[in-house]
Amino acid sequence: MALLSPLAPLVLIALTLGTPSAAQTQPPARERQERQVVVPAPGEPAPEVRVAANTLTLFRFGASIDRASVEVEGRATRFKLVDPGEYTLALEPSVEPAPGERLIVRVRYKDGGTPAYATLALVSHPTLVDKEVEVVRRPRTVEALEARLSHVEAELVSLKAQCAQSGLPHLAFSGVLDSKGVRATPFFGKPAPGYKGGLEPGRGTGYRGTRWAMVVVKVRNLPGQPAWTPGAARLTSVKGTPVKVLSVHMEKPLLQPGESALVAVMVEPPASNEVLFQLELVDTEGGRLLPITKVQL
Fold first, then answer.
1. 294: burial class by Cβ within 10 Å (0-12, 13-18, 19+)?
2. Is it the case that residue 216 has pLDDT exceeding 50?
């Protein structure tokens, strides 16, 4: 009968205790689910969506979304895939949220309905992961639809009035548009030094006639910023001489995040021969302005 080595019991104990089983080393498989979440109204908490590292989650929206508006917290460092489509958004985290952490996702709809944005919170869950999420907005009530219709009708009346007062036919009828030479000077607007208001000026043209003058400049609302529309303007020469502003118009009613539009500012012809000016565009609430330098008129 063979004798066991004195070390054999120790080897058996080490093998038993020191070698974990495959079941102990593998995390439990997460159940993949398909579900629906409702877009919150302003002021309501964002609904949670459960994600996992190296697992694709697909969001389906009931209306087309603005791809340029998609905001994903930690996008550059914590996701291997962020792929927005016309009606979908595919996300695949490389590092999932820590317990109790919420990564915010924000997407703007294109249709102008309400809510205008879908805001969601990505979280981790020990046993569940959402592989497909249908994102829906609450059905609109009759009262909400009537209020929206009244608002759109009021905007239409306002735009018609602006067109009637500021179009070229009106200029001809008033005698302002005469046959004398008109000078058009192109320029490229620059934001004032240190400006961080989320708006970006671009190419523009200054028009000066004998009895009228106008500055037209392209403005871009950067992604992630609130919607914007100009309500007032100030034009001042580089020497500090103010120019009287007659009206401010934009080619669309509202500038959404990521969009660009032309803004036209009608002014009285400057009394001096100065050609360099600074233009300040102020929003309708007076809180968010865009100071533009290098304006030529």
1. middle
2. yes
Among 136, 163, 197, which residue terminates a domain? Answer: 136
Closest CA to 276 of 244, 235, 245: 235
Number of domains in the chain: 3
- Average pLDDT along the chain: 83
Rounded CA gap, 260 and 202, in Å?
9
Residues 6+ apart with CB under 8 A from 44: none
Residues 282 and 186 grouped into a single domain: yes
Q: What is the pTM of this model?
A: 0.46
CA neighbor of 260 nearest in space, from 205, 209, 203: 203
Residues near 3 by Cβ (< 8 Å), separated by ≥ 6? none
CB under 8 Å to 246, separation ≥6 — which residues?
266, 267, 268
Q: Do 173 and 185 lie in a common domain?
A: no
In whole angstroms, give the CA distance from residue 233 to residue 12: 86
Task: Tell which of 177, 204, 239 closes a domain.
Answer: 177
Half-sphere exposure of 19 (CA within 13 A, CB side): 6
Residues of the chain above pLDDT 90, percent: 47
Residues 100, 161 share a domain: no
7-16, 82-91, 273-282, range with the lowest pLDDT: 7-16
Short-list 297, 64, 35, CA closest to 182: 297
Instruction: For 182-211, write each residue's pLDDT tens digit.
Output: 888 999 999 988 888 899 999 999 988 888
